[in-house]
Structures are given as structure tokens and as C-alpha cells.
Amino acid sequence: MSHHSPDPPPGRRTTGPLDGVRVVELAGIGPGPFAAMLLADLGADVVRVDRPGPSPLGGDPARDVTNRNKRSVLVDLKSPEGPGTVRALAARAEILVEGYRPGVAERLGVGPEECMAGNPALVYGRMTGWGQRGPLSSLAGHDIGYIATAGALSMIGTPDGPPVVPVNLLGDYAGGSLYLTTGVLAALLTARATGRGQVVDAAIVDGTAHLTAMFWGMLAEGTWQDARGRNLLDGGCPHYGVYETADGGWMAVGALEPQFYTVFVSLLGLDGEDLPDRADPRNWPELRAVFTARFKNATRAEWTALFEDTDACVAPVLSLHEAAGHRHLTGRGTYTEAYGITQPAPAPRFSDTPGTLRLPPAAPGAHTPDVARDWDVPELIEDHR
Fold this sequence. Notes:
Elements: E1 22-26, H1 31-41, E2 45-50, E3 70-74, H2 82-91, E4 95-98, H3 104-108, H4 112-117, E5 123-128, H5 143-150, H6 169-194, E6 198-203, H7 204-211, H8 213-221, E7 240-244, E8 250-254, H9 258-267, H10 284-295, H11 300-307, E9 314-316, H12 320-324, H13 327-332, E10 335-338, E11 341-344, H14 368-374, H15 379-382
Parallel strand pairs: 1-2, 1-4, 2-3, 4-5, 5-6
Antiparallel strand pairs: 7-8, 8-9, 10-11
Helix pairs in contact: 1-6, 5-7, 6-7
């Protein structure tokens, strides 16, 4: 395994800022596992409780990057001993994360009340789409429906086209995982100070709505239209958008500030004095037509070479594979090769206690004996006899 991250200071153990924090993750899919991966990347001892049998989505566990830096134990929550084993793990943890539909953990005997009975300081993190309460809370759903309901999906796309699906980055991971992680870490600070744990109800609809805070301010101010593709940051503005190149590639332009816009138009080979005033949105269609025609005159590689190392705020639109090879990202070690898989390195960076890639993706049940010993949970072994 190779790392491109800087060497730790001499004499320091390379364990992240969450070294020593014990986390139980009840296996699920999507945003729960990603949140637990983030905690694990930052040094937490994350034990994923997998159920016997094939994984819900299929796929090769050895390539599930979201299970890196974790250890896995097998527990059958439907067996008589299963819930007690999970409660024993929870008794020795500071954080538990689950992503069931509301009420399921309680029915299984591993809800907040049962788990906190043996550990009043436990932070119990709940990851759902709709939240623990509300008219839709008991219904199934996925990222696309959550971000649609929260209002965010309506903002992405061209004015005359359909809303564009931002894969599942915006709902599951930004509105879901990152809010769950922030929530459980904040609650951990309180628990350590007071000895009292609490339940963190992280709903993707809540987190996604929260992400739109700036736009509500602009709506109130009258500087944002509640319709996609007509505004400064949603592709409506000609100097903040994407343009096709001669070879079918794309360039991303973000020349918002006047000084960067000046560099942008001059490198495009245009005379800024001859162009219509960009401050008037009525001129935007004409500007867009001019920029579109210019970008069609050269390839993505040619435009990249021209704009590189300038303050024009223009970048090629790279695929995942291309991004992993970009000189800035390789220079920083943003992507790394570990356990035979190219993957993003831990983020963010810490000057004193860097996150590391300590363990490959956890095979279900691979660490049952180790965790039974390290966490002093003999029930894990007995459960399998």
C-alpha cells in the first residue's frame, strides 16, 4: 500500500484525532456506512455489525471502499442472543450508528432506550431519509426523492430541461452522512462533559434543506429566482458554467469576480471592451453565444494548456479516472492507491493527528474474535457456538 500523504512528525503515532473513540455501526447501505467510514478514517475504532448472509446490494466486500478502516463482526439480530450481543458492544462504545426505518431498531431490541440503559453516555446516531418523525417517516425512499422534496433538486439543470440528478452525492452523503457525522461528534463533546448521551436524528431531508441556507437569504433579498438555470451559480450566468470544446470535452468556467473575468475573456481571445455588460442579465444570452462559439474552436487539452496556471478560474471537466491523475491532486495525495484500489485519501487534513488508511475494506465477520478480545465482549464468540 502506498501513501502520498506527508510523513507524520517524528515520534508521533499516526492515529487520527478520534483515536480511542469506539463506534458501533449497525450494517446498512449508503449514508450510514459512509459516515462510519469518515469516523474510521479519522482514527475511531469502528466495529461494523454485519448480518449473516449476502450483503443487501451484492457486490464484492473487498472493494467496498466505504468499509475501509473498520472491523466487522457477524451478529444475527433475529437470533435470541443477537440483540444482547449488540447491547454488550454498545455498552463499551461512545457512539452507535444505525440506518433502519424508524421503529425497526426498537423492534429488534437495540433501540436507544435498550442500548443507553447499559451506557447512559452513549451517543445514538440515527440515519434516515425522512427522519424519525413526520408524515412520511415510515415510508421507503432514496436520495433522489429526498432532495426533490427538500427543494434542492429543482435548482439543478437548464431552464428548458429536466432537473439533473447529482448522483447520490447531495442527499445521501452531503445532506445525510456529513450531518450525521457532525451531529454525533457534537453530541460526543456533550456526553464527555456531562456523562449524558443522546439520540441524534439525522434526516437527509433536513440536512439537504440546511445546505440551501444561502439561497433562502438570496430569495428574501430578491437576488435569486426560484427557478433553475437563471441565476448566478446555477449555470444561468454565462461566466459561471460549462462549455463544450472542439473534441466533445467540457471546460468549467467560474470567472465571477471582475479581475478574473478580465483574464478569462482576454485568454479566450476576446476584447472585453467590445463585449456587452455582463452585469445586466439581459446580455447573458449574447455572452453565452460568444463564449460557446469560442470554446468550439479548440480541444479540451488546448484550452486546459491555455488557462492552466492563470487566475481565469477555468478548469477542464475531468472524469474520475482523470481526476485521480491530475497533477494537483497527485501532488497533495488527494487520491491514493491502497490495498489495490484507487480511492480518495482521508479528509480533511490534520497537522498533528493525520487520518490514515489502516485497514482494507472489512470482510463481513472477519474480526469477530479480535473485537471480542479487544472490547471484552465474550458474547460475540458465544453467539456463534
